[in-house]
Amino acid sequence: MAVITAPENEKATAKSAPVRGRKRRVRPIVLNLIALAIGMVIWNVGAALAMIGDLPGPGDVASRTGEMIGDGQLFENAWASLQRVFLGFLIGNAVAIPIGFLMGWYPVARGLLEPYIQFFRTIPPLAIIPLAIVLMGIGETPKVFVIFIAAFMATVVAAFQGVTNVDRTLVNAARVLGASDGVIFLKVVMPASVPFLLVGMRIGLGSAWATVVAAEIMGAESGVGQSMMQAQTYYDMPTIVVGVITIGVIGLVMDRLLLLAERRLTGWQETR
Amino acid sequence: MNSKISFQNVTKTFDLKDSVFTALDDVSLEIEDQEFVTVVGPSGCGKSTLMGMAAGLVTPDGGQVEVDGAPVTGPGPERGVIFQQYALFPWLTVRGNVEFGLKLAGLSAEERRKRAEQAIDLVGLTDFADALPKTLSGGMKQRCAIARAYAVDPEVLLMDEPFGALDALTRVQLQDQLLDTWTQQKRTVMFITHDVDEAVYLARRVIVMAARPGRIFRIIDVDLPYPRTEEMRLSPEFAQLRNEVWHAVYHQDEPQDAVAA
Ligand SMILES: Nc1ncnc2c1ncn2[C@@H]1O[C@H](COP(=O)(O)OP(=O)(O)O)[C@@H](O)[C@H]1O
Ligand SMILES: [Mg+2]
Fold it and tell me: DSSP assignment of B116-163, as one string?
């Protein structure tokens, strides 16, 4: 009996739960700030006592960050890396979405492409770098190429899964209203795949960002990874740490932006 | 004969791993224009398969299905289907869902809006026209699905256990509402249910099916006039019919005229 009446009760429970929870819980942001402060103290003490070699303290890193912002270096490095990521990510998704949809929609396409996708999926994009450099030289092309691979792999699988997971009854509901295959694809399959696509894109962007930095460390004219590599040869510890923090902050911001897009574009989903 | 839907010796089999399963075995059934029939029977007896053939979603292996005298070759907007799982497009609002079929029919935006508003009003969802399905209760979702089917004004309504997942109160409300709209605008309705009460209350004829193989077991005429009322639902005649259908559904291996007398 409880099962039958459940739909009518859904709203009531969903509304009352957070109200009860909020009173007991400490605000997460407060805990986050406390954690940050403790981390700073540990870092400071650790650096002062020289516990981990010559690790620079927060003060050194902060002043180096100021310098690097002042002379535009930080922005220049970040922009160089971001440009590569955006280019590779855009091309990767532009190619992956149609191919993934094709694989999900046509069993023949799936049969032909899936072995390759499954195989290349297991190879970390970084492992392609040596090959890409030999084949494409040391310019921008091999770097953008490996980022393309990283973004492509994540999205192609997501698009494919999105199509194969579309609820059959939704497809039938559209068919009985007179929808042709083309309309079903555009108006049912594509919107139903959006949540899968966005998850794939988030994974792809994270993987692309990790890949670009590594690619720059292996050799580049510019970029965050390159600046860290250069600092290493001069034993310039603060610059290396500034690089590490920059990578983290940019990665986090990009992830949050896509998460925001995900929330806005897939708000129609039933909460599970 | 004035048949709207005609099943002629239809057969459907499914190939299983090492056997062939007969879902429907030589089923013949004529449904008249503007008739309301309900289909009951044990789970797995082929009710959905039979309806799927009329909808054009399932192809028979043998025999023929005709609507208006023409063989069914695929789905079409003149045959509206309502599914048990609501099957609303979750990314569209109530209005968007109801307009979906109207858009496919090539109606102008203005005409679409008008027709959608009428259908939404008919099922009492006017205040929720701009709500997403996830914010609706089960009963409201099914109302929306009904509005979506009504909007394109189909001559035939095929309903597969549409109220099966709803609570008893909502179910009774939607039954009355369905009969109301059906009396105002007569369509041919084929309605699957597993609820014997519902089967008798709605139908002019109750088709009782049997399983293994799926076939028509008995057809019981419901000699109660429309409009159906609450008094009728509680009347001895209704109880008698309900017993008869119950017996036909749950005691298929016993002699059938035992309770009928
Ligand atoms: N696509 C399919 N493949 C194999 N068996 C199926 C398929 N569709 C239906 N069946 C079988 O056919 C029988 C009738 O199914 P269905 O028409 O859904 O029954 P009902 O709606 O009466 O419960 C069931 O036993 C079901 O398992
Ligand atoms: Mg069924």
Answer: HHHHHHHTT-GGGTT--GGGS-HHHHHHHHHHHHHHT--SEEEEESTT
Calculate the CA dihedral of residues A70, A72, A77, A79 and round it to 10 degrees. Answer: 120
CA B234 to chain centre: 24
Domain of B166?
Answer: 1-78+158-261
Q: Do B75 and A7 touch (CB under 8 A)?
A: no
What global pTM score does this model have?
Answer: 0.84
Nearest to B229, CA basis, from B182, B184, B172: B172
* Rounded distance between C-alpha atoms, residue A174 and residue B43, angstroms: 26
d(CA B22, ligand 1 centre) in Å: 9
Contact B89 A173 (CB under 8 A): yes
**Distance between CA atoms of A93 and A156, rounded to whole angstroms?**
8
| Domain housing A2 | 1-55
B42 touches chain A (CB under 8 A): no
CATH number, domain with residue A90: 1.10.3720.10
The one-digit pLDDT tens for each residue of chain B (261 residues) are 579 999 999 999 999 999 999 999 999 999 999 999 999 999 999 999 999 999 999 999 999 999 999 999 999 999 999 998 999 999 999 999 999 999 999 999 999 999 999 999 988 999 999 999 999 999 999 999 999 999 999 999 999 999 998 899 989 999 999 999 999 889 999 999 999 999 999 999 999 999 999 999 999 999 999 999 999 999 999 999 999 999 999 998 888 765 544
Longest dimension (CA), chain B: 59
3-state secondary structure at position B107:
coil
Strands (E), chain B: 3-15, 20-32, 36-40, 62-67, 70-71, 79-82, 156-160, 188-192, 205-210, 215-221
Complex ipTM, two decimals?
A: 0.90
In a domain, A270, yes or no: no
